[in-house]
Design brief:
The protein is α/β, with parallel strands linked by helices. It has helices at 15-26, 34-47, 54-61, 77-86, 90-104, 117-121, 135-148, 155-171, 193-208; strands at 4-8, 29-32, 110-114, 127-132, 184-187. Bound molecules: 2'-deoxycytidine-5'-monophosphate.
Length: 209
């Protein structure tokens, strides 16, 4: 039987950590849907160049190779911005819908994290969470992550990147970043990640009872 946990939220709010913990706890499969957009962004930068010509990006999005989700070069700041830009194109989003819905419907349970899972991809999800935090706190986390990986950057640049991505992801016409009206909101600027994980697990336990 399927059981769907939809976890949405802005960049670096902690939704990846919460998603992995929930998937581990219940033995569910986990899909980080941001990786799909990152693959399209990464391949587009390589094959089309930084102007990201729309028709060419759409053609790429219809041929995503799922094996590319394992690439180790998807987590850079440049790829994050490219992902956010290609994600604005409605045809790119459409091209990725079927894969996400099939993943969600698998028996044994699935956790999907992204921006539009509870609102568009799986509006009937069994549990919906919206994990968020202030832009400053998220930028601080992302800055530490990038620095630990040896990417040369500074806090102000990361904060601007986070804000630019928030604006693009929330203000686009199709499937903007938004909390579903029935989502449980977890603000990790006010709670530890451990507390957010505990709240997420409790929400799943309640829905399964
Ligand atoms: O979650 P992430 O930072 O890896 O996502 C990268 C970009 O992909 C994000 O800025 C917007 C886009 N995205 C989206 O539009 N919808 C999703 N479900 C997931 C990501």
């Amino acid at each position: 039987m399927s059981f769907i946990v939809a976890i949405d939220g802005p960049a670096a709010a902690g939704k990846g950590t919460v998603s992995k913990a929930v998937a581990d706890r219940f033995g569910f499969a986990h899909l980080d849907t941001g990786l799909l957009y990152r693959v399209v962004g990464r391949v587009a930068l390589e094959k089309i160049g930084p102007a990201l010509d729309e028709a060419a990006v759409i053609a790429l999005a219809t041929q995503v190779d799922i094996a590319d989700l394992e690439r180790d070069d998807l987590r850079t700041a440049a790829v994050a911005q490219a992902a956010s830009k290609v994600a604005v194109i409605p045809e790119v989003r459409e091209a990725l819908v079927v894969f996400q819905r099939e993943f969600a419907a698998r028996s044994g349970g699935a956790v999907l994290d992204g921006r539009d899972i509870g609102t568009v991809i799986c509006p009937n999800a069994d549990v919906k969470l919206f994990v968020t935090a202030s832009a400053e706190i998220r930028a601080e986390r992302r800055f530490k992550e990038l620095a630990a990986r040896g990417e040369e950057t500074d806090f102000e640049t990361v904060l601007e990147d986070v804000k630019a991505r928030d604006a693009r992801d929330s203000e686009r016409d199709v499937a903007p970043l938004a909390a579903a009206s029935d989502a449980v909101v977890l603000d990790t600027s006010e709670m530890s990640i451990e507390a957010a994980i505990a709240a997420a697990i409790e929400a799943v336990d309640t829905a399964r009872a």
